[in-house]
Amino acid sequence: MKLLEYQAKQQFATAGIAIPQGRLARTPEEAVAAARELGGIAVKAQVPIGGRGKAGGIAVVGTPEEALTEATRILALSIKGYPVTSVWCEKALDIGQELYLGITLDRERRRLAIIFSAAGGIDIETVAEENPERIATIWPDPFAGPRDFEIRQLAFSALRTAPELRPQASKIASGLVPVAKALYGLASRLDALTCEINPLVMLADGSLIAADGKLEIDDNAAYRHTDIAAEIAADSAAAVAAGHGEAGGEDPFEAEAVKRGLTYVHLDGYVGCIGNGAGLVMNTLDLVKAHGGEPANFLDVGGGASAEKVRNALDMVLLDPNVRGIFINIFGGITRCDEVARGIIAARDQLKITKPMVVRMTGTSEAEGRRLLQEAGITPGVSAPEAAAAIVKLTAEGA
Amino acid sequence: MSVLVNSKSRVVIQGMTGREGTFHTQQMKLYGTNIVGGVSPGKGGTVHEGVDVFDTVADCVAATGANVSGIFVPPPYAADAIMESAAAGIPLTVAITEGIPVHDMIRARAAVKAAGTLLLGPNCPGVVTPGECKVGIIPNHINKPGPVGVVARSGTLTYEVIQGLGQAGLGQTTSVGIGGDPVLGLSFTDVLELFATDDASRAIVLIGEIGGTDEEAAAEWIRSSGFDKPVVAFISGRTAPPGKRMGHAGAIISGNKGTAQSKIDALSAAGADIADTIEDVVAMIAKHLGKAVVAG
After folding, report:
1. Could you tell me the pLDDT band of residue A247, with boundaries at 50, 70 and 90?
2. Which ipTM did the prediction report?
3. CB spacing of A363 vs B101 below 8 angstroms
4. Is the minimum CB–CB distance between A110 and chain B shorter than 8 Å?
5. Which alpha helices (H) appear in chain B, and where do they start and end?
């Protein structure tokens, strides 16, 4: 689950991190009201994706008239496929220095990392590539959390590469301690996989304030955060009520798959792909591509798939009008090939599937599974590469 | 010879009385695994599927001398189950559960490390030493004893490789599934280190996938340690787009990290053979072991 900037900032504020004063506007008129109330404001598109500044999704305005023009423009934008359904109107800051503070998962160390840099306001991955020395990282004990001295070390270590900030280093370090602790506490409480303040702004008076935020919550922990899921749903509903489309901007096929309880990823191609097991399906996609085809999706029916699940999967894949044919790749371990075959045949008859299907099955009860398919007029394959070649041929342009 | 588990392994199953736990405990028993007990809080003193049930792992260890634990506990409670196993001093914990929250796993993994025990998984198919012991969900009938060590992330691809090897007359010393989650216990390198000391393992199959840099780390270890057994590597997700999670929680290319090409390049530079298909994996292993591949 990804939170929008304004939602992330509300979480920051709850955790005791300072945020600029702001108002959410779903219409240009609401943005005008915010400008009247707050004076000079930044009008910022609320979309769950980076790069909105470059896409024209942020404007700094001085008057209500400018707010009207800019909010009208931004609310009509669609950024990387996400329609802008609201703008966060935030009191413009007297920026002293832009810093970066983020918490992310370090897979190699199997811990959360706290990352700090004096090079704030730009994409941290770019900084990591071009100026890795400008980034400092600590990996706190997962039970105790970061100690004050560790955060001071983090600050001084990053500031070593920013000599221009030397006079303020001590102030930044002591200011960072409560902010980093609060952010780490928030990340732990919310099961965040990404929890980022960029930029973390040092105001002229030396205090630190979160000028932008990113917060992404582990889907595996969604059951602990139903309040946040409800907040995201409420935002979407409010967007619709204000006359916008659904805020999500999510891929409609993937949204449908979530409703159906299927592990599905939508891709750009035309060969529908279904298999049991994530590695096997990834391999299925690779084989289709290696034989010159383009996969339309990734769909993993998982272990012990029932006939009903197979039917559901086929129905899901066929929702995508670009799909010209389907490749089903099954390894029968605990899953029985004959059961899957019955599911495929039932699905074909019930859903009246006329598009070509190639089924490759091997493993438990494969002989019976293959016999059933053959009798039903579906050609089964044994070798995955051969089956991939067959479906690519059957779905080729003009085939 | 083998790694991690053998005929002397005394296995406790945590979450044995649940649906998955019950089914797979039966399968493990059928395979010949010595299941000495199950743990299900509140059901201590009962017998389930012919196995004694205990309230706590410590009780089970005291009564049975269990030295391996298999975890089939649902995700919200699985990390705690892992820590309970480690705290009870069980040297090897095999966590099958998929969907454990990442923050829970970070803490569980730290607790396991502090206890000085080993964790395999989570979100893994488990481990099998053919003819001796199986802990997990790898289908029984495909395993065959022999000289190949198998280490893999994905379950189904592990099964495919094991079956393919078996059909070519190539058995396994031990097959180890490390799991598809972002935060794991044993890494590829950890398992390779085990295979390095197992004389019976004469060639290694490594099945990786997109996400993280564990394959790259293994390549670096192969190079720096002078590991001299032939390694045949296969990486799935070569055509996966960046930013999309491909089924496994850990199978995601983030930015420029975790691409299949980076893994293939690293393993290839370390001297591993790179296979394009599972069929190629089997053929390459056969070549290394001086065996002709027989079809079917």
Report:
1. low
2. 0.92
3. no
4. yes
5. 19-31, 57-64, 75-87, 102-115, 155-167, 188-196, 214-225, 260-269, 278-288
